[in-house]
Amino acid sequence: MFLYSCFVLNVLYTDKKSRSQKMGAALLLQAKEFCKEKGYKVIALETAIDNPTQKL
Length: 56
Prior knowledge:
Helices cover 29% and strands 14% of the residues. The chain has one helix at residues 23-38; strands at residues 6-9, 42-45. Helix 1 (23-38) links the parallel strand 1 (6-9) and strand 2 (42-45). The protein is flat, with a radius of gyration of 13 Å.
């Protein structure tokens, strides 16, 4: 069994003006780099089921 340090990203929000400009992808890449620097092996992105922006 393997246990890894996990970084949980609970909220990823981009302003309406920034959407469709790959801003979310840029934020995830930044989170990935942060995790590499801190030694995390896993990133979990969580959002609420009833979050209306989940379907954008």
